[in-house]
Amino acid sequence: MLQQAFNGLVGGAFYALLALGLAVIFGMLGVVNFAHGAFYMLGAFGSFVLLDSFGVNFWLALVIVPVVLGIAGVLLERLFIHRLAPLDPLYNFLFTFGLALILQDLVKRKYGVQSQPYPRPSALDGSIDLGLFTYPTYQVFVLAVSVLVCGAVWVVLTRTRVGMIVRAATERPELSRALGIDVARWVTPVFGFGIALAAFAGVLAAPMRAVNPLMGSDLIITVFAVVVIGGLGSVFGSVAAGFAVGLVSALGNYYVPSLSQTLVFILMAAVLLWRPAGLFGREEAL
Amino acid sequence: MILSKLAGRPVLLAAGLVVALVLPWFVYPPVALDIVCWALFAAAVDLLLGFTGLLSFGHAAFWGGSAYATGLIALHSGLPFPVAVLGGAAFAAALAVPIGFLSVRLRGIYFAMVTLAFAQMVYFIANQWRDATGGENGLQGIPRELFGVDLSDPFFFYYAALPFILVGLLVAWRIVRSPFGRVLMSIRDNPNRARALGYSIDRYKLLAFVLSAALSGLAGGLFTVGHGFASLQGVYWTTSGQAVMMVVLGGIGTLWGGAIGAALIVELNDYLATAGFEETGIITGAIFIVVVLLFRRGVWGTARDLIAARTSRARPAAENEDAKVEAPV
């Protein structure tokens, strides 16, 4: 039971990282990035290719892959997203949907649909005794790192000047603009950062989950439900909902296995009935 | 609005009808059936996207949900296929009531994400409930016969299914042209004004959602009977995306444009599959991106604008309203 809860938190770690990226991108650009799952998948494949073709180990991949994909995100924003920004947000949603299809099928064409192996880094092989039960070291590492990253992002957002600007621009773009903040200047780096976070989650997932072209497209819909639960504009809500959803679906899996996958959507429906803007969202965002 | 008049003119309607009637003579009959089914599905999605301003990314739930319902009725009841298909459409409409009730309160991108999530819920249920849906195997061997007449030849089944498609399209067209459709368009263009005029906009949106789901279900049921099986693919979110893609490619808010989009994408997928190219997402995704970036009016919308430009040049300042093509999304 306690172990189930722990599994849930580890699963929630991925939701939280992805939802965090989606939330900052949405807040800043008003774009719901359908390709977010594809970048998560590319993150996992990136680390696989680095190891397989160049012998680059996990730790380096954890730095290189997010940086490279983050830069790709910056280019993507400059070349395309930016151009669609003045239009209805649905066009960017559709654009990133098309992009997700292309990325997924390109990888599928190159590597097929079967999963690629990625070994755990040797330092994290084995398991730790957590007192009440033993748990795989790698899973503990994933949980710790994602809490750390979300925490670091939280500190940057709440304690620094840059964070203050980004937060203001994320949560109240019009007001920030009116107060003289150059919102446009922060848009591109924030988009790149969100993509880098997705890629980072992908690298973390590689030794633990099956590395295959479809890994992102299945996850992204759940992450959409997570951010709807948390409140789409809310950074804190997205992270909290990420861990909470992980927990709920793991416990659900323990008690009612047949419902486990639909549980998150049932949860979403319940939240929508009660608070249409999500738990931490603002009504006016609708 | 010369062109919408033109589109409503008997000439154009007759041309469309002729194309629909001769299609299986020129196109491989199962592919022809796919085209008309997807055309109706696209029209149903456009009813929401183009005329109500709601981008549903969850219509796979209705297309695929009806596929299972239709398949189960046909397999277990022995009733003729039209009954099964109408039962499937009714099931889709019933499914749309709770989903629509929760979704229509949200706008724009929220609506899209929430419908997507609900459709995924339907997908998981279809996947888990193996006793009814067959899980990964789906439902197989769905009969195709009408009062003892064997319709397993796709060429004949096409003509058995066509009346339902045409009636479905006619219903969509009637909805758009009705006072009810006018209210939907006013909600699309200015929800606050519509509300101020006393329309209960959520109720109108819900009704549009349910009607659209019923038409999607009709299309999905015919598709299922035509292929003889229902599978998880039908309820997967890529199916919703494909329908939206056809609408955008054909032209949002044109209703008939979706048929062109359906024909192009179904033909392309068939061509690629025959050529042994399985990763169709690379090509269709690229086409979709180009359309979103450069031709937002789609094939039919662009053509309509070009003709409109030409007619207004010929008769300067004839009707300024021509320029006002329905605002997309």
UniProtKB/TrEMBL annotation, chain A:
Transmembrane domains' residue ranges: 12-36, 56-77, 89-107, 138-157, 186-207, 219-247, 254-274
Membrane disposition: Multi-pass membrane protein
Pfam families reported for this sequence: BPD_transp_2 (PF02653)
Keyword annotations of the record: Amino-acid transport, Cell membrane, Membrane, Transmembrane, Transmembrane helix, Transport
Entry's Gene Ontology cellular component terms: plasma membrane
Domain of life: Bacteria
Gene Ontology biological-process annotations: amino acid transport
One function term, GO molecular function aspect: transmembrane transporter activity
Location of the protein in the cell: Cell membrane
InterPro entries per the UniProt record, alphabetical: ABC_transp_permease, BCAA_transport_permease
Family: Belongs to the binding-protein-dependent transport system permease family. LivHM subfamily.
Name of the molecule in the record: Branched-chain amino acid transport system permease protein
Species annotation: Actinomadura coerulea
Automatic annotation (TrEMBL), chain B:
Family annotation (Pfam families): BPD_transp_2
Principal cellular location given in the protein's record: membrane
Mode of membrane association: Multi-pass membrane protein
Subcellular location: Cell membrane
Keyword Transcription regulation among UniProt keywords: no
KW Cell membrane (keyword) present: yes
CDD domains for this protein: TM_PBP1_LivM_like
Transmembrane segments: 6-28, 35-61, 81-102, 109-126, 156-176, 206-230, 242-265, 277-295
Listed InterPro entries: ABC_transp_permease, LivM-like
UniProt GO cellular component terms: plasma membrane
Keywords noted in UniProt: Cell membrane, Membrane, Transmembrane, Transmembrane helix
Molecular function terms, GO-annotated: branched-chain amino acid transmembrane transporter activity
Name used for this protein in its record: Branched-chain amino acid transport system permease protein
